[in-house]
């Protein structure tokens, strides 16, 4: 039997080691060395995760790998410990598995970049932080990872820092996340003040003693953190801008792993959320509105990565809907399949961008299916998966959420189905405009090297077959993932569905039928003749509303940026120029004037100095004697 | 053999106090009112030694040899101080051709 603690520590340890090594020797590492090293460390972490997965017995409960006591103050004890259970193992496998493929892909994608070693160091560091986030055995560890991934996200969005717009996007992501983080920290502080501990197992044991109002407050604050990290309304605007980073970054951080941290947090704290029905409703409606709003915006985007970004926001909305419904395993299932197909789509988009030498505007693409065949086929599979067509992975995960929604209310179901159909529409618009019709650009497309296409193929297989992970009963499966997660998340075991098999079949049939219909509409509009949307100003009201992102960015600019800028300039012109500067200068001037007067006391006469000295001593002597 | 401390104790303490007070005052007056720098240095030594005398007397009366040890330290420091002072004096003589302390009036604004 191998030492489990050591194995557990090595999973995040290896990427950290890789990051340190690559960062230290980044100047002397030539060519692909950094990429190979980075991929190797993540690959090893994946292998270790698989070993832990195989050696883990769900019935035995969570295994804690206690490394050392970290913060030990008074009654507070926060150990530096990792927790291995079904939930963290699921996330570990996603992070390291998808992470390995994306690292491998990056070797090809970032091949020509001058700072390729720095890139891999940051990517490894990100993986380390993400693993700490999902493996931590207490909220503080989770928070470290939470901030770590935020930092790496910031650094990687602004990786090409010579373009000011990219720096602006990075800053936006950082600030938006910080708003969410504030909620997270406040939630933790409140949680600590009422339970006296932040270790997962102890907190969940004590949760039943808390009253509903307290739990609602705490969970709402934790949810604010999740909103920031997982790009939900009203804090979602940073994610589309985050596409400024290199495409593998978008795939790894802004699609597959980091943005799902919010979902992980809620599933992890499901005990608390289960006891706060109001928060669950808030989550449900936030997710629902986000899913629909982001989907409508996605239809009118012309940047290949922006479409995928809004689709990510929308899919994250679906996951939150699942969590709001208490369907934690359905949410985690969608996290998993989404990691597969969205990473695939982003990497496919990266391959297209690579083929076209950096072109991202789908209006200048078209007809690429003949020239970049592997990318086309894998992208098609990814699109089918996200559209939720049977038997692709997206079908099963989305259907699980839709079934739970139908169980709650048919209206909710209809809205979510509508959102899913919009998703299908814009994804196929993207596919058709990119790969069908005739080429509208002036570049010479070329297929990407094998190091990029192999990860695409692996992810395509996972996107197609990922549904098998949680095959529902009506298909003869027994939802293995749900049963697996039961051991980790308290809420999962209370998930239930009142739907009869017939209803389920009918719902699936309906959604499949509509999806196929939408694909045909999209085919007619975008494949046969490429209908290109105009600039936002030339559209009619609703399309313009969508193309302008519901004016949310403009609203924030008017509501926060402009007043903030106004206050800053006022503080500068009044506070700084008229208060602080005169104050500081005044202090200097007083000193100067005083010096000018007082220096006259220095006559230069030695006898006088001596006399003054003796007189001073006598004064002090008298003061001492009379105790003045 | 009669010890030194008992010899010192044969004189009442008030006498020592008075003597050292007078010596100190003479030294102080010299420092303040004389203009010859050599005299000033000598007066400084006088003040040192008046304090030394007092220390020795008290040390004897209190049966505490610490005071006498301290006197040696003061002597040592005074010797060091005098070397510096005399060096300054030599330089002063070379530069302004005088030992009058009022000639050193350039240390001002």
Which regions of chain B contain 5 or more consecutive residues with pLDDT less than 50? none
Low-confidence spans of chain A: pLDDT under 50, at least 5 residues? none
Oligomer: heterodimer
Tally of distinct domains of chain B: 1
First CA to last CA of chain A: what distance?
80 Å
**What proportion of the residues of chain B form beta strands (DSSP E)?**
under 5%
Description:
The complex is a heterodimer of chains A (628) and B (109). In chain A, strand 1 (63-73) and strand 2 (76-84) form a beta hairpin. Chain A has a domain at 555-626. Chain A contains 24 helices and two strands. The radius of gyration of chain A is 29 Å and the shape is globular. With 628 residues, chain A is mostly helical. Chain A has a two-stranded antiparallel sheet with strand order 1-2. Chain B is an all-alpha fold. Chain B has one domain (4-98): Helix Hairpins, CATH 1.10.287. Chain B has four helices and no strands. Chain B has helices at residues 4-9, 13-33, 37-62, 66-96. The longest helix of chain B has 31 residues, at 66-96. Chain B starts with a helix and ends in a 13-residue tail after the last helix. The model of chain B has no long low-confidence stretch (mean pLDDT 88). The A-B interface holds A 599-600, 602-607, 610-611, 614 and B 28, 31-33, 35, 101-102, 104-109.
Provide key terms for this protein.
heterodimer; A: 628 residues; mainly alpha; two-stranded antiparallel ribbon; 3% strand; globular; B: 109 residues; Helix Hairpins; 4 helices; 0% strand
